[in-house]
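Subject: Sanity check before I submit

Could someone independently write out the structure tokens for this chain? I want to compare against mine line by line before I put it in a report. The sequence has 337 residues.
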Amino acid sequence: MGIGRVKRILLLLERASYRIIVVPLIAFLPAPLAYSIACQRSALRYLLDTPKRKEIMHCLERVLGNQLTTEARTRTTKDIFRLRSCLPVDQTRIAGKGEALAKLVEMRGLEHIEAALAGGKGAIICVSHFGGFNCGLSLLGARGFPITLVGRWASNNVEHRQSSLSRLFYRLTVQKSLARHRRRTNIEPLGQVGVAVQAARVLQQNELIVIGIDAPALDADRQRAVPMDFLNGQAQLIPGAATIAQLIGAPVLMMFIRRSPDWHHQVLEITPPISMDGDVVTAFKRCLAVAESAIRQTPSHWAYWNVRDLTTLGLLPEETVQDSQQQEKKNLTANIS
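---
Independent answer below. Compare away.
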């Protein structure tokens, strides 16, 4: 067994032990200390996980081009590692009543939700896969707004990218706490008509529907994806949020959650309603433009800086993921003694 293969195994063990052992031990320490430990862990991970570090920097360069200097790409990559170390701490602190996390998050724009619900048609909250959006949604639920998400949990492995053990681990350590605060089950995106009908029922009850607008389409939904200008390319996206909004007449808001420079405080912001005038694609583009602005401002908060997802979105050519897979096979072969 070669050194490279041993290193990969050690990195996998470190990631598992961090989530299973370290995070539960540190999560409820004073927040500055807990998140400082998480950031120190991320610095070590950044140094040791060379393939992931190179993949992220490559993706940043290919997608954002000269928007980021070499120094800025390095800084952004380090921040991506920091975010990935801090999120498990967030997910643990939301246990119980969620107060351990809630006291660290400033909420802005809740009045926009209240005003939207006053219209009696419910409201749609569009989210990008940005920062700790999952925890942010659960905090909204804890504040008294039942949340119905159109989306699948990572444990519902539709495209078989995770092992059964990984899915079970996610379900027990993350999903359980997040779902409890939302008080509503997800609507699985496995059929256009079925999703619309279920979403309409929720909105008719004057509740919140949450829809991600930047997720790579499932294989079964690729034919419905529409090319959209996004991050210097053409992303293949499904404008479902705008479709439902125009059918029901529900207002559309957007939510973002950003970390403060100290990494333990966060700001959750709800935008005013986005205009749904025009056709579905035109209306959806307005939401996407808001998301793109947030990503360009803080690229480290976006979840999709990996070859597989960017290729599925259409922001990287198909041969990029093929080249990545071939390189992995070469590395594996070279490391077997």
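---
OP: Matches mine. For the report I'm noting this point. Confidence is low (pLDDT under 50) at residues 331-337.
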